[in-house]
Amino acid sequence: MPRLVIDDLEIEVPKGTKVIDAAERLGIMIPRFCYHEALGAVGACRMCAVKFIEGPLKGVQMSCMIDAQDGMVVSTTDQEAVDFRKRVIEWLMINHPHDCPVCDEGGQCLLQDETVSSGHGRRRYPGRKRTYRNQYLGPFIAHEMNRCIHCYRCSRYYQEFSGYRDLGPLQIGNRVYFGRFKEGRLESPFSGNLVDICPTGVYTDIPARFKVRRWDLQRAPSVCINCPLGCNTIGNSHYRAVMRVEARMNPYVNGYFLCDEGRFGFSYTNGGADHAQRPWNSRISGADVTVEAALAESASKIAEISAIYGPGAVVALGSTRNSLETQSMLSRLCRRKGWQGPVWFNDPAIYRKVRSGVERLDSGIAVSMREIEFADFVIVAGADLLNEAPMAAMAIRQASRKNATIIVVDPRPISLPFEFRHIPAAPAQIERCLGSLVKGSISKDELKGFDSSAKGFCKALPAKFEEKESGISISELSGQLMSAKRPVIVCGTGIVCESTPAFAADCAQLLRESGKKAGLFYILPGASSFSSALLSGPETKTFSEILPQIEEGLIKALIATESDPFWDFPDRERLDRALSMLDLLVVIDYLPTETVKRATVFHPSSTVFEMNSTFVNQEGRVQHAERVHVGGVPIWGAHPPRIIRNFVPGGDHQPAWELLWKISAETSMLESVLTLGELIAAEIPVFEAVGHSKYPITEGRIIPENSEGSFVKPKASPAKGQTAKGFNLLLTDTIFASREPSAYADTLASVFPEATLFMHSGDANGAGLSEGDMVSVELELGAIQLKLSVSQRMARGFLFLPRQRGIHWQKMKEFSAWIAPERIRKI
Amino acid sequence: MLSEELKQELRKMIADAESSREKAVDVMLDIQEHHLWMSDEAMEEAAELLGMSPLELDELATFYDFIYRSPVGKYVIHVCDSAMCWLEGHQRVMDHISTSFNVPIGGTSPDGLFTLLPVCCIGYCDRAPAMVINRRVYGKLTPEKIDRILGRLARDNEFHPPE
Amino acid sequence: MAQPLVLFKNRHPNRVATLDEYRQSGGYAALERFIGGKIDPGEVVRLIDESGLRGRGGAGFPAGKKWEAVPKNAPFPRYLVANADEMEPGTFKDRILLHTDPHCVIEGMILAGYAFSATKGFFFIRPSYDSSAAIMERELEIARQSGFLGKSILGSGYSFDIVVHRSGGRYICGEATALLNAIMGKRPNPIKPPPYPTEKGLWDRPTVVNNVETLACVPHILRNGPQWFKDLSLTSKGAGTKLFCVSGKVNSPGAEELPMGTPLREIIEKHFGGMLPGSEFKACLPGGASTRFLTSEHYDVPMDFDDLKAIGNRLGTAAIMIFDQKTCLVATTHNLMKFFARESCGWCTPCREGLPYMRELLWLIENGEGKEEYIDTLRSMCKQVWNSYCALAPGAAEPVASLLEFFEDEVREHIRLKGCPFNAKAGN
Ligand SMILES: Cc1cc2nc3c(=O)[nH]c(=O)nc-3n(C[C@H](O)[C@H](O)[C@H](O)COP(=O)(O)O)c2cc1C
Ligand code: SF4
Ligand code: FES
């Protein structure tokens, strides 16, 4: 480990550490523009110059380009270096507009900071400033090229890091222009990171633009709850409105970045641009009432129904967007009150997949996104990452940049911003494919060393998988897997078979036994599925299983806590009928859902920005979201308020767990259970076990050390290919438009993907259909119309329908459908 | 817009290369032989042939001097303005062409025949002042010589080998 | 002393030497002996190393050392690039060489490739040399048909082929690492080593970049031996002949092959017809636009790497641009700076922003709007641009720095007179 001296302070750093980073460890922040930890060093801006006084190098050099070496003596304050850095700033400022007063970057501008700190304050350059024309880059990012200081961070991030190819450097010399070939929306769903990565105000966040100054923002660390990954964010609010969301660096989860859904999908919390889309007030039978009146009404009605029909006639619905606090409270109340539930999922199959996934994750095998970046072989089984968990695609891209082999086994026409081998296997074939791939990578010697259960599992794996269409040789890939050291299996829980998550775990375990540092990474649905699985047992029901009881009149009251069956339950007519049979529908929520519209009693709950809350992501990582602001109807636009009130309009919301506690009328509860931490630990013992019972709960992972690898003998795979003529229609997620709560954000509405049905081009040919046709698909409850997209890179015999806002897929009776060919027509 | 024949030729050229991007400049120069300049449409089609995004190709096109991203005349006259040619009267050459042949400096003559642009040292310093027209070079320019060269191009409207 | 013609041996007015002519003058004998005779490539490297051949592209790096830097166990394919970009103002020797005896370059490339087992060569050439590119393509095909190039050269089992790569035209493309990016179809920004191109160049494979003239020397050295090459030089440390291209205020500008170390005075007066009538030697740039002004004080300097270094200058490309007493050096320097600022690739700040800054100040001085303080600013920037990413900006600063060193009075006179004392000179 090299030892060096920087500004008279000695430090020892790992080999390969750049001098700029070594200084940072000492708390010395050497100015920089082009250098960024995630992007690496390129030495373009020349801002990080320091003087090397002793050692292998001498003179003024760029600290970002030089590895720390033994015996170096470095000065950041040497006059020559200081003068040079000041000159660099002067050079950069000769063309930078003096528009700080109207620039949104003001107050959070690296160029501003470094101009001030360098002491450059007088314009000496007698020439004119260079000017550029800006481009329209879509609804999220504003472009102001005059402010560009040519650090190349944007293009390096956009092209190298995130893998998109529609933004980059054009022109030469001091006319270099960062932009697109033609104006238009940036193709990358990770474009928002340009705002964070640009050291000045070239790219600014449009939803927040011209609204507020950085120093006037209320800021707090938060967590994104749109997908299961739980990326770390910073919430920024002003005048009761969340103005923008920024990425918060977490080396294990999202690194420095976020996807655009997470960054721009927050406006639901403000009720949209007109603030009218959020249910702000408590209501009884649709009429606004006080908080107390609504609480009293729910409490008494629930008590009444329990008394008459027994507590089993009350059922509590939770969801995977509940906080851990709310989930624990739901669990506790159901147990103590004898209510049915909590119900977390609608689809029993999904629920079982989530549970088996969570059960199989232990610290020996679970990997974080960070670890995926260092994988040398990644198998994605049954997951459409860009649509289901976008930042996971970014993590794999980093592995791919380090030359990892990436294989995606999925029937959908997957696209990802890196090179990968796609095997479009039908869901029922995924295990077969994965199994033969893994089996082929196990050598005879390794097999001999296995214990009997591993050996049994390995032997039962299918030896062969025929992939004719993609022309990919599994045995060749097996060969590559054999020499991999850190393979990772990423397994989805959406379209795969019920046995697949456990099977993937067994495969990962087997790779581990063969001496690799193999890892497993699940993609679960929703932000809190991990904790909901922890809070359920074999008896836990899904909404599909509860529904008949409502229809039979056995259930009289439903408490829907941030849960909207209309969101992802098929057969809307049946649902409507059933809910109308209830005596009581208590709804606690912050979104204007269909269920909220039908509530007998409605209680507004707090969004993640308005309370302290805890979420557990899909790899079992406990993370906190701090309250960013009190919340309420935003007042910007009508600023400053002229009406003096002694309450906050729209300020009635409370955390859902608190509302639940109040309507349960369980006054004894906070006497026996003192803290939220203890409440959680009482419901989920694993928190106790890892000492996470204090509140706020210590951040960290709660997966067990080692869950005994129990190999399940793989089933004989079903015969390949459909016999009946027709298509299996499956629902899938799509970025921006499929997930609560972001799909309610009006900021995203303009980027919702067009409603599209996906079909294999061979199938389409047979049916006389082609790319771009408008088609009508007759579902059980009526027809839907949408555009057809055909692809060769998907499984035959399937149709994929995005479960997105605006497509009336609820005309299906079940979670999947069988579509006879004559039921698809061109219109 | 690119003819199938040209595309076929370009595809073959690309196939012979170590990597397709390697041929980016050649493809653009070839297209310019036929279409004089790289229109957005041509860029898009060329990018597709090269397996690049249009932006990636434009990153190169806008970098280089001899790739034209705006319309140019049939003959693009680059007059060298670097040290030796400048010393020997590059400005006079520019002015002469501009007035005698009605070509605005940095622009194209109304008949679309000539475009007049400055260019950095073209490596004919021994024959300064020099210019290059459609990648052929003419040196030791005098007004009479310029009149002869451009006059011939204008008259025949076809290309002649350099002296 | 008679001019020892080596590279220009087959020079004919207005005509390219044919393969036969080249062969008659001993061409391809080295190839037959070394490749045909399967002599160990290490021997080629050793001989070139011993000959003292230094790069003719500007930096003067020993050619043998560069080839040696390709690690013995480096992966294949390996590439050789002949740099015929030649966009340094004042430089045109490579063009003349290509129009004189292309096979000399081709044989040099093949032998250089053999030296480190390259499998493919790129001949990188600028667009305004289209006629040279066409000549090359024609002669390469002839070489291929004669068995000197392509699969299993002369049946030796060693295969090597050369393709011509046309540039889109930019000075920075001549910089070795930017050139590699250009060939790969990337933006031609330089790449700072490490890793050196000899380890990771084109497509991350070992790649050697040599100037055309450097390569052209190789067959002659191998044929006649390193000592012969050394002896060609007039100076003891120098080696070989050098193509000098002279332009500016002399009677017969052009390119001539002369012994390394020929004194400047002799070059000008004897070989290029002397100064124009009425012109007196005021200064020259001895090695292209990115070298320093050389004043009459050093009129007798031997033109060799070390001798020029000794007087604080550089041989560069040996492109000598000669200015007389009627030339305004402020205006000249402004013109050079205009070139460099325009050709900056735009990657690093000192070059992208600093050069236009300096150009602006020079422009104001030349136009009578200069201020005394600009001199200090220019001076300090000349030093500061040395901290650029590549060698373009430091090269660009050389004429300015030397203008301020040797012709400060002339600069101050501009400022004092609020205008150019040479007034309405030379077109600008
Ligand atoms: C800005 C810049 C431009 C250059 N242009 C050329 C050129 O046109 N031709 C050339 O041979 N070398 C040029 N060089 C030098 C090359 O980087 C490299 O040193 C040379 O091609 C190596 O060949 P040699 O060792 O045979 O001289 C240039 C260097 C710089 C910094
Ligand atoms: S000095 Fe910098 S900007 Fe100039 S050419 Fe080199 S890398 Fe490009
Ligand atoms: S941070 Fe080192 S050069 Fe930009």
Shape of chain B: elongated
Number of domains of chain B: 2
By CATH, the superfamily of the largest domain in chain B comes out as: Glutaredoxin
Shape of chain C: globular
Order of helices and strands of chain C: HHHHEHHEHEHEHHEEHEEHEHHHHH
Report the mean per-residue pLDDT of chain B as an integer.
94
Helix content of chain B: 40-55%
Distance between the termini of chain C: 42 Å
Note poorly predicted spans of chain C. 424-428
Radius of gyration of chain C: 22 Å
The greatest interface between two protein chains, and residues involved on each side, is: B-C, 48 and 55 residues
Q: What is the tally of helical segments of chain B? A: 7
Overall number of strands of chain C: 9
Characterization of this structure:
The complex is a heterotrimer of chains A (827), B (163) and C (428). The radius of gyration of chain A is 28 Å and the shape is globular. Chain A contains 28 helices and 34 strands. The mean pLDDT of chain A is 93. In chain A, the strands form eight sheets. In chain A, strands 14-13-24-23-22-15-16 form a seven-stranded mixed sheet, with helices on one face. Chain A is α/β, with parallel strands linked by helices. Chain A folds into five domains: 3-92, Ubiquitin-like (UB roll) (Roll), CATH 3.10.20; 134-270, no CATH class; 286-344 and 531-638 and 653-689, Rossmann fold (3-Layer(aba) Sandwich), CATH 3.40.50; 352-524, Dimethylsulfoxide Reductase, domain 2 (3-Layer(aba) Sandwich); 727-826, Barwin-like endoglucanases, CATH 2.40.40. In chain A, 28% of the residues lie in helices and 19% in strands. Chain B has two domains: 4-63, Arc Repressor Mutant, subunit A, CATH 1.10.10; 75-156, 3-Layer(aba) Sandwich (Glutaredoxin), CATH 3.40.30. In chain B, 45% of the residues lie in helices and 11% in strands. Chain B is built from seven helices and four strands. In chain B, strand 3 (131-133) and strand 4 form a beta hairpin. The termini of chain B are far apart. The two termini of chain C are 42 Å apart. Chain C has a five-stranded mixed sheet with strand order 6-5-9-7-8, sandwiched between helices. Residues 424-428 of chain C have low confidence and may be disordered. In chain C, helix 2 (29-36) crosses helix 9, helix 3 (41-51) packs across helix 6 (102-115) and helix 13 runs antiparallel to helix 16 (392-406). Chain C has 17 helices and nine strands. Chains in contact: A-B, A-C, B-C. At the A-B interface, strand 7 of A face helix 4 of B. Bound molecules: flavin mononucleotide, iron/sulfur cluster and FE2/S2 (inorganic) cluster. Iron/sulfur cluster binds at residues 172, 190, 344-348, 351-352, 388-390, 392-393 of chain C.
